[in-house]
């Protein structure tokens, strides 16, 4: 086998691995989003981003370090936190 064939195989393997990793990542995020509880009423604030989230929000899982628990949206806003656009903590609880 010559060097060019080996290079082509190497590139193909890398592209395939990236595609598989991306698929796994995007499907896990989608599944996480479906798992966000809308019955829990407490909120978690991420002091690095300044957003507050529903428990189980994938954005919160990505946060570095621990979150801050708030008992309500109002309590989080009173501390200067903004609602997450992903989990919509100010939206209706189901
Ligand atoms: Zn969120």
From TrEMBL:
UniProt superkingdom: Bacteria
InterPro entries from the UniProt entry: Ada-like_dom_sf, Ada_DNA_repair_Zn-bd
Entry protein name: Ada DNA repair metal-binding domain-containing protein
Keyword Metal-binding among record annotations: no
Molecular-function GO term, any one: methyltransferase activity
Source organism phylogeny: Bacteria, Bacillati, Bacillota, Negativicutes, Selenomonadales
The organism of origin for this protein: Anaerovibrio slackiae
Methyltransferase keyword on record: no
Keywords: Activator, Membrane, Transmembrane, Transmembrane helix
């Amino acid at each position: 086998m010559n060097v060019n064939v080996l290079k082509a195989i190497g590139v193909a393997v890398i592209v395939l691995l990236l595609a598989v990793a991306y698929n796994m990542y995007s499907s896990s995020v989608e599944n996480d989003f479906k798992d966000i509880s809308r019955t829990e009423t407490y909120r978690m604030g991420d002091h690095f981003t300044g957003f507050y989230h529903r428990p189980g929000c994938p954005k919160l899982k990505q946060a570095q370090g621990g979150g801050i628990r708030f008992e309500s949206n109002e309590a989080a806003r009173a501390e200067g936190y903004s609602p997450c656009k992903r989990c919509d903590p100010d939206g209706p609880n189901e």
